[in-house]
Amino acid sequence: MSAHAWLSKTLHDRTVLCQACAHACKLGEGEYGICGVRRVEGGELKLLVYERAAAVNIDPVEKKPMFHFLPDTQVFSLGTVGCNFTCEFCQNYNISQYPQEHQHRIVGQDLPVKRIVELARENGCDSIAYTYNEPIVFFEYTYDTAKLAHEHGLKNIYVTSGYETRKALDLLAPYIDGMNIDIKSFSDTFYQETCGARLKPVLEAVKYAHQKGIWIEITTLLISGKNDSDEEIRSIANFIAKLDTAIPWHLSAFHPTYKMLDTPRTPASTLQRAYKIGKEAGLKYLYVGNIDDEDRESTYCPACGKRVIDRHGHIGQFVTNTLNKNGECPHCGNTIEGVWR
Ligand code: SF4
């Protein structure tokens, strides 16, 4: 079903400005936004995927990845079709690029806001994640769900490429408790050529979400020869460290997919190198992903150096959290930053 995409504004020339993401699409009657799921109909912007989910799963929260957010709990995860990015390495391109590649067709199952919250509770989830495709493109669906989820004691997570406008973040901040934001590169050229977006709005969204008090974790998918030079990794690390050395940084290995089938898998040595650069930049919490490396997937207390959250096996399979409910280290009492209850 479709609903009024109210995060928008009608302009003097009767076009409609979408205010959800940094693309700032200005649309005339019948036109679709870049994301393919917001369209002007009858003079007003519509969200075509409202209560229409294309992917639904119950995942360990570690899979988002969120490592400092209610560890060892389940998260009700949903996404729709459509995306405001066109990443050539997208792992969910079958839904994210669906409308763009199928003459604007919208697919998905009816999933009312109320039912999402019911299902999350019935299945023992502690939170709801808006994930798989870019959640800001279905902003109004996420907003209504997140608000109702809070009323029922559930937390909310955005897994995002970080293209939210300030206005969107202002509206989301009371209800979104955690965000995992991609910094896909530190090169504007990479963003333009490989993702159909720009770097600057992403960095601005990261800073603003942090300023708004939302718990954030950053993910960078490292791709050989594309974004894995020491210099580029260091630039991202320094950017995060300047903002807050307690922001966890997930360094993830690329697997060939979508339009990058000829690019090799990222070797473990690249992730280890990036991990070291992150440490040198002063970041307290670094993690590798998409490879098996128990030591670099676990959390260590920055004060005493002891392992305080152990993670091994498949992501989220075996998680042993020794922190108390305030996130304090059982060995030295130091507080580990995160959302623990
Ligand atoms: S959410 Fe979609 S319609 Fe709105 S500005 Fe972004 S790409 Fe354009």
What does this structure look like?
The chain is of the alpha/beta class. The protein is 26% helix and 23% strand. An eight-stranded mixed beta sheet has the order 8-9-11-12-13-14-15-16. Strands 1-6-5 form a three-stranded antiparallel beta sheet, with no helix packed on it. A three-stranded antiparallel beta sheet has the order 2-3-4, with no helix packed on it. α8 packs across α9. It binds iron/sulfur cluster.
Residue windows where pLDDT falls under 50 for at least 5 positions: none
Q: How many strand segments?
A: 19
Distance between the termini: 35 Å
Q: Total number of helical segments?
A: 10
> How are the strands of the largest sheet arranged?
8-9-11-12-13-14-15-16
Layout of helices and strands, plus pairs?
Elements: E1 3-4, E2 8-10, E3 16-18, E4 26-27, E5 38-41, E6 44-47, E7 52-53, E8 55-60, E9 74-79, H1 93-96, H2 98-101, E10 109-110, H3 113-122, E11 127-130, H4 139-151, E12 155-160, H5 166-172, E13 178-182, H6 188-195, H7 199-211, E14 215-222, H8 230-243, E15 249-253, H9 268-280, E16 286-289, H10 294-297, E17 299-300, E18 307-312, E19 318-321
Parallel strand pairs: 9-11, 11-12, 12-13, 13-14, 14-15, 15-16
Antiparallel strand pairs: 1-6, 2-3, 3-4, 5-6, 7-10, 8-9, 17-18, 18-19
The structure holds iron/sulfur cluster.
Characteristics:
TIM Barrel; 341 residues; 3-stranded antiparallel beta sheet; single chain; alpha/beta; binds iron/sulfur cluster; globular; 8-stranded mixed beta sheet
